[in-house]
Specification:
This protein is 47% helix and 4% strand. It is mostly helical. The chain folds into 2 domains: 20-132, Winged helix-like DNA-binding domain superfamily/Winged helix DNA-binding domain (Arc Repressor Mutant, subunit A, Orthogonal Bundle), CATH 1.10.10; 167-256, no CATH class. The radius of gyration is 24 Å and the shape is elongated.
């Protein structure tokens, strides 16, 4: 005999609400951790759509680390889904963060949130790949019918420019390091840490432009602190990390994660 199905009673005030639009589009872009944290904030929110649960409490509710909670909150802020404010007590100690759940009309579209102009989705289609590409099926380039003469001419011009211009990555990095603008120094540190090599100035400028937003997010931190985080990621990260990753680790107590025996070399 089958068990009797008892449906949930909506008259009991033991539920919280999440906008359908979040689940229909944003959840797959932000991932499970950010979605779980958002659900936790929705659960704790009052009628004015604000709440102040401790990050430790959220972590315990979801069985994740506090660092994961902090990274998820940064993602929710980036998409303008929540707003965070902090206050101090009279003794100048910090209060818990105060979270405001923004109306969906203020949410940023995921496709417009990447500094490089690419979607920040978790699926292959949003990363610029079609389903055929994700399966390994060859997809012809739309310019495959370009004339052979035009291609040969472009190749010849590119080859000639490469011969005429002698470009040295290390020299360009030193110029970046000597730049008065701090965010340019940060990008130089990142390029050095990733052992980046450029064939010409145009490639270097594309690299700088791609990392501008993340570098400016780190301006408030000391260069030595930024360098230490990069050193930690070089030694410990088992994934492809970026300058944006540095901003996610910058507030961590690295002494608890790794013992540094030497400082990163200055360019």
């Amino acid at each position: 005999m089958e068990d009797q199905i008892i449906i949930r009673d909506l008259r009991k005030k033991q539920f919280f609400q999440v906008d359908d639009e979040y689940l229909n589009g944003y959840a797959k872009h932000l991932g499970l951790a950010a979605t779980g944290v958002y659900f936790s904030l929705c659960r704790h929110a009052d009628k004015e759509q604000k709440c102040f649960p401790a990050q430790k409490l959220i972590a315990e509710e979801l069985s994740i680390s506090e660092r994961t909670v902090r990274n998820a909150i940064k993602e929710l802020i980036k998409f303008n889904i929540i707003q965070v404010k902090r206050g101090r007590r009279q003794d100048q100690t910090w209060l818990n963060n105060l979270y405001y759940l923004r109306d969906k009309s203020q949410w940023k579209k995921p496709e417009a949130n990447n500094a490089s102009g690419e979607p920040e989705a978790n699926d292959d289609r949003a990363r610029g790949k079609t389903q055929q590409e994700a399966r390994g099926t060859h997809v012809p380039n739309k310019d495959i019918h370009e004339s052979k003469d035009t291609h040969t001419k472009d190749t010849h011009i590119a080859s000639k420019l490469a011969q005429e211009e002698q470009f040295d990555t290390n020299t360009y990095l030193k110029e970046m390091w000597n730049d008065k603008r701090k965010h340019i120094k940060i990008i130089a540190l990142f390029a050095k840490a990733k052992n980046t090599k450029w064939e010409n100035k145009e490639q270097a400028e594309v690299f700088i432009k791609r990392n501008l937003r993340s570098a400016k997010d780190l301006i408030a931190y000391d260069l030595e602190k930024i360098a230490l985080v990069m050193k930690y990621l070089i030694e410990k990260a088992n994934f492809k990390w970026t300058l944006e990753t540095v901003s996610k680790y910058i507030d961590e107590d690295l002494n608890k994660l790794i013992q540094f025996t030497s400082k990163i070399a200055v360019i």
